[in-house]
Structures are given as C-alpha cells and as structure tokens.
Design goal:
By secondary structure, the protein is α/β, with parallel strands linked by helices. 47% of the residues lie in helices and 14% in strands. Strand 1, helix 1 and strand 2 form a beta-alpha-beta unit.
C-alpha cells in the first residue's frame, strides 16, 4: 500500500555530543537531497535542534562512558529505551538512523527488529562499533538487527560484510569540521600571546571522568615544561561544564594559561599552537587536520583498565596510528601516562622541527584515507539514507 502523500519522516537518535554533530550535518544534507521536504524526530542535542529536531528527552542522559560509570544509570537507560521504542512504533517513520552510542542505540534497534510492525522500516546505524579493537563477535550480533551500517574508517566494512550486514564507509566527519581553517596569528593577538611564545594546547578530555584522571597529570607535565621553556603559554579548550574545575586546578606554578569555553575558538587555538597534549579521541584527528604535532595520553579507572588489557586487540588508540598501523604519534596509556614521560616527548616536539614534519607527513597520509579532499561524509551518508526513503514510496 502506498504511503500518504506527505514529507518523509526520518527518526534519528544521537546519544552524545559527537553524535549530535554528525546528526546535525546529516539532517542538513538530507534537507538538500529532499529539497526541504523532510521531517525529523528523535533524540539529539543542540546541533540537531538547530536543524529542527525536538528531542524526546535531553540527550545528556545518554552521555555515559565506561563500565563503572554506566552501571548506576542502567534503570533510567532502560526506561528511555522503552520510551523511544514506543514512540517509533507509534510514528512509524520511513527510516530510523541511530548514531554511535551503542549502549542505547543497539538496545533500541534490537527491540525494533523484534516488532512485526517494523518489518518494512529499515534501521541504519552511523559509526561502527569498534569490533576491530575488541570483541569481534559483536559484528555477528549487530548484523541481526541492522539493515545498513555507515562506517567512518575504511578498514571497518569487511568485519560486518562477512556477517551479511551491508556496510559502507562514508568517511570521517573530521574532514568537514573546519579544523584546518583556524587563524593562529589573530588568536594570539586576541588573547595577548606573544608571537615568539611557544604555545602548548592541552586537551584533558570532554567528560568529567576523563578530566578528573588526566588533568593533574597534564598540569604536572606543564610545570616540568615550564622549567625548560621560559616563553611557554598554555591554551586549554574546555567544555563549559568543566571550565570551573579546570580553572580551579591551575596555580601560580604554571606558565600563563588561557582557558577557552567558546567552541568557535578551539580551531583558532590549534592554529596558534606549536604542539599539543591530548586525551585519546577524535580530537587527535582535529589536531592532525590543523597540522599540530601531538602527544596522546589516556587513563581509565582500574576495573576498565583491567578489562581493556584483556580484551583490546589493537596496538594503538589514536586514530592516526590505527589508520597507518604504525606509531606516528607518541602514545602514553595507563601506567605510562606519567608527567616525566609526557614532558620528555613534548620537549622533543617543541625543539625538533624534523620530528614535527614527520608527524605532519603522517597526518596527510592518514587523513587521505578517511576522505579528505573528497565528497563530504555527511553528503555520502545522506545519499545512502535518502535512498531508503525513496524506496519506501
């Protein structure tokens, strides 16, 4: 039976800030493909809201990480799964797109696929679970309740295609982030940073648990570097909710520190930086886009660390190293995440131009692998999603 002659309805779920950005860009591209004739419903944050999304509930409820952190929130998480599933069954959208956040999104997708009412409504997932990093058996489970998987990295599709799940690499969203468009000299002028000062960008993470574990180590590292470099200036981009915690942790023993709460300033800060100390995550690709030599570090709680050592299958955590399958960026994880090691590695980057250029050459190689210079990932994703919408009419 033909559907009613109305604009297609796409239900999109994002469970964390990075997914919200992906969702917002996808919505914008879908509007272009649909000539503006498209409706949205689902769960998202500020970026998706600007594209016309009215979130069922605050996305922040789903922003959880780690084994220990998620356990106290499981009852609420499961209630939200039931609520979301119920709404989807009532609305019967043309397609459902879940974005990352597998702890929530996969529970919703699995429940939907058990419902007879959803038999002809495709469920797509954007951002592949890292089966190549741990628990490869998850690929078979995911293939049971998804119709199409959109991946960010070129080596991911084969893990799922062998299990019968159609998978397409659309490229990494960092390539359309604008991370390479910052204005370094203007940033220095705005913040009173001398042109001959060495600028170190410090990025201790965007979650409270990350900052709690990494900030003391990072600040101790900075103090060690300050004793070596007289004209050192530190820039710390931070999410507003954590800015107070970071500011209160600074003291007189540190070199000048510029704390940034404005997301729009982050890429300008990158352009002004000579090197960076960053928590493992997508920010390493943003720094690579900006051409900033970096050191990557990370710590987890003891239980998560114990599990990781027994389950993680890969040698690296930073995406540049993973893409290249070599140690192009120094990584200091868990017990090796120590101020003396971090300071030594950063000192090399602040004094050795050859080491910096070697990193930048590696950046270019890795970024080409995830689509830099090609069609924007959001448009590739929108093309795939809208293909399912057209097939429904």
């Amino acid at each position: 039976m033909a559907k009613e002659d109305s604009a297609p309805l796409i239900f999109i779920i994002a469970g964390e800030p990075s997914g919200d950005v992906l969702g917002g860009r996808l919505m914008e591209a879908l509007k272009i493909y649909a000539g503006g004739s498209v409706r949205f419903c689902g769960i998202g944050g500020e970026t998706m809201s600007t594209q016309g999304m009215h979130s069922l509930f605050p996305m922040e409820e789903l922003t959880l990480m780690g084994v220990i952190e998620i356990v106290p929130h499981l009852p609420r998480l499961l209630r939200r799964v039931l609520q979301t599933t119920s709404v989807i069954l009532t609305l019967r959208p043309d397609v459902v797109v879940t974005i990352d956040a597998p702890g929530f999104c996969f529970r919703v997708a699995c429940r939907l696929k058990r419902c007879v009412e959803m038999k002809n409504i495709p469920v797509l997932h954007y951002v592949a679970p890292s089966v190549w990093a741990w628990a490869p058996g998850r690929a078979r489970k995911v293939a049971r309740f998804l119709d199409h998987l959109l991946t960010l990295l070129p080596f991911e599709p084969p893990y799922f295609e062998i299990e019968g799940l159609t998978s397409t690499c659309v490229g990494h969203p960092v390539t359309e982030s604008g991370a390479d468009k910052g204005d370094g000299p203007a940033f220095r002028a705005r913040h009173g940073i001398a042109l001959d000062a060495l600028v170190l960008c410090v990025l201790p993470g965007s979650r409270a648990t990350e900052v709690a574990r990494l900030l003391p180590v990072f600040l101790d590292t900075v103090k060690r570097l300050a004793a070596r470099f007289g004209k050192l200036h530190v820039v710390v981009p931070a999410v507003p909710a954590l800015a107070g915690r970071i500011e209160s942790a600074t003291d007189d023993q540190l070199p000048p520190v510029t704390l940034l709460c404005n997301e729009k300033e982050k890429f300008h800060a990158f352009a002004a930086s000579d090197a960076a100390l960053a928590a493992s995550g997508t920010v390493s690709l943003e720094l690579a886009m900006a051409g900033v030599p970096m050191v990557v570090a990370y710590r987890m709680n003891l239980l998560t660390t114990w599990l990781a050592k027994r389950l993680i299958l890969v040698k690296y955590v930073s995406l540049v190293n993973l893409l290249l399958d070599r140690s192009a960026i120094p990584e200091f994880l868990s017990g090796n995440c120590r101020p003396e090691f971090l300071a030594q590695a950063l000192e090399t980057l602040l004094t050795d131009a050859v080491a910096c250029e070697e990193q930048r050459a590696s950046f270019a190689e890795a970024l080409a692998m995830i689509g830099q210079g090609g069609e924007p990932p959001s448009f590739k994703a929108a093309h795939l999603v809208f293909g399912y919408v057209k097939n429904a009419y």
